[in-house]
Amino acid sequence: MGNRKTELLLPAGNTESFYAALDGGADAVYLGLKNFNARGRAANFGESHLMAALKEAQKRKVKIYVTLNTVIKNKEIDDLLDVLAFLEKAGVDAIIIQDWGVYHIARLRFPKLVIHASTQMGNHNSLGVEFSTQKKIARVILARELTMTELKHIAKRSTTELELFIHGALCYSFSGLCFFSSYLGGRGANRGLCAQPCRRIYQDDQQSKFLFNLKDNQQLPNLKQLQQLGIHSLKVEGRMKSADYVYRVAKAYRMAIDDPSKKEEAEQLLRMDFGREKIAYFLGKDVRDGITNTSNTGILIGKVILAKDGKVTFESDTAMQEGDRIRIRHIQDDSTINLKLRELEVAESRYSFVYDGQEKVRVGDELYWVGRREQRFPGKFADLPHARMKSLPYGEKKKVRQQLLIKSRPSKPRLFVRVDQPDWLRKIRIEDVDGLILSFTRKELESFDFAARFIQQNKHRIYIETPKFISEEHLEDYQKLIRRIEKQGFRQFFISHLSQRLLLSKDSQVSSNENVYVYNDAAAKMLNDTRIRNFCYPLENDFDNLKSMQNKQGIVLLHAYPELFYSRMPVRVASEEQQFKDDTNKTFQKASRDGITIVTPEAPVSLFQYKKQLQKEGFSNFMIDLSHEKPSKHTFKKVLNKFRFAEQYQPSTTFNFKKGLQ
Predict the structure, then answer these.
(1) Cα–Cα distance between 77 and 87 in angstroms, integer?
(2) What is the pTM of this model?
(3) Fold match flag (7-170+215-272 vs 411-559+609-644)
(4) InterPro entries, per this entry (predicted)?
C-alpha cells in the first residue's frame, strides 16, 4: 500500500466521549446506534444525536463510521432496512459490519453505503483481504492476533484499506469466534452482549485462577512500523470507556503520530489511561506473560485500613484529589464498587472519604484509581436537530424479503457426520451417512492416504474441511495441499471462512460450515449467490429464529461439542486432565490443536429430541459432529441411534435452542 496520512480512529460510546475524541485529535470516530452494534451496553446514539455528531464532525473534517457489527436475527431484517435507509440518507462515512446478510442487503438496496469489514468477520490473512476486495468492501479491520511478519505480508499484497487495533482491551478468543458468553446464559458476543467470561476466575487443580484474562493491547512501540507499512487506520478500542480515557489516549497517539520525537511523552500519557497492564501481543512477540491476575482496570493505590461511621480510610503514596474516580475490590469475592472521592481528607499519605453506599466495605479491600477529570467535555449537543428514523413502506420491505428467497427444489433428507481424527474412519459405517466431513489438521491431511481403495470408493461421500484459522505463513501450504487432494479426485469441501473458497479450483464443490454465519435469510441468499452448495446454521442459534427463516435448505447441527473459546493465545492449565470449573461448578476442557487453544464444555450440545419438530418446520439436512470425542464404534452407534429415533442424548445440553439467543 502506498504512503498516505495515517488515520487515528477513536471510539465514542456517548456524547461526552465523542467530544473527547474530537478534542484529542481523532481523524475519525466510530460509534453505534441503539441497535445492531457490538457494544450493546454502551449508551450509544439516537437518530438526533447521530445527526448532530455528523454536523459537528464535518465542521472539523472528521469522519464518522457507524457500527452495525453484530449478527442479525431473521425477524430483525425489517428494522435493519429502516436503519440502513436512515444511515444512507444521513450520509455517514461508512458502516462497519459483521453479518454477510447485512452486506447483501446493503449492496442490494443501499449501494451508496461504504462498507468496512469488522474484525468480527475474522479476516486474519491476505486471502480474507483479497476476498473482501472482490466484494468491494472498502476497508478490512484485521484480527488482533497477527504477528508483524504476517502483517507485513498482508499489507504488501493488499489494495484495500487496512485498519488495526492499536490500544485497548483484548478478547481471549478470536473476535467473532467466541461462544462462551452465549453458552453460559444466551448473551451472545456476536450480538453485542458479551458477559466477559474471559475476565472470570476459574477453579484449576483446586486453585482459583485467572486463566484467560488478557492484559491490554498497546502498540505505541510499534507505531513507526505500522505507519511505514501503510496501515491506513489505527484504531483505539473503548466504546465502554470514559471520556477522560478517550481524550488521553487520543492525545497520546496524536502526539506520537505527528511528532515521533515525542514518543516518550506519549508513553507517559498512556501510563495514566487507567487500563490494565499492557502488552504488545503478537505484533510485539509478547504473549508469554499475557495473562494478568486481576480483572480490574485502573491503578492499584492501596488497601482499606478502616471502614467505620460512613468513612473509608486508606494509605497511599499516590496523590489523590477530590472527585477522583476509584473502584473498591472486595478481596473475598472479587465484586467491586465504583465511586468518586467525596469530602476527601488528607493527612500525609493517609486519606479518608465519605461513603454512604449500601455495599459493605471491609478492611483489606483493594482500591483502584480509575479516572480523573482533567478537562470537561460537553455532555449534550448544543444544536440537537429533530431526526426520526422513518419506516420504509411495507410493500418495499416485502419486495426486499422476496428478493432474499432461494429458489431451489426440496432435497431428500441428508445426514452429514464430521470427524476430527483419522481413527474415526475405523469406527464408523460410512454407508450410514450421506456426507462424511474430514476435519483434520494440516499434517494429518498431508499424510492421509487418499489413494486407499476404501477412500476412493466412497469419495462421493467425503468432504474436506478447512480450519477456522490459516496463518499467512501457511496459506501457500494449504493451497498446494488442496491442489493435491483435488488431483486425487476429491472435490467436495466445507470452508470455515468465506475467503477460503479462493483456495479451491473453480470446478470444486464448495459448502460452508457453521462458522460462516447464517442467522437470517439475507446471509443464506448471499451464500447461495456466491455459489455455496450447502450452508450450516450456527450452533448457538435458537429454534424461534430457525422457524422464522424462509431459506430452510441449510444444515442444522444436532450434536456437537461447541468450541467456546478458539484462540491463538496459549494458556497454562495445571490440571492433569486439562479441565477447569467455573463458579457454578460446570466443567470445561482445554485442548490444543495446530497451535490453537480450544475450550469445550464437558457435555455435548445435543438436539436429537427436536428432530421431528425441525422436520415439521421444513428442515431436512442435519449434521452430527464427533469432534472432541474419543473415536469409538459404541459412540458412533449410540449417536446414530439417537438421531434415527429422535431421542434425547444424555448427558447433554441444548445451548440456546429453547431458552433463546439474546
Answers:
(1) 15
(2) 0.95
(3) yes
(4) Peptidase_U32, RNA/ubiquinone_mod_enzymes
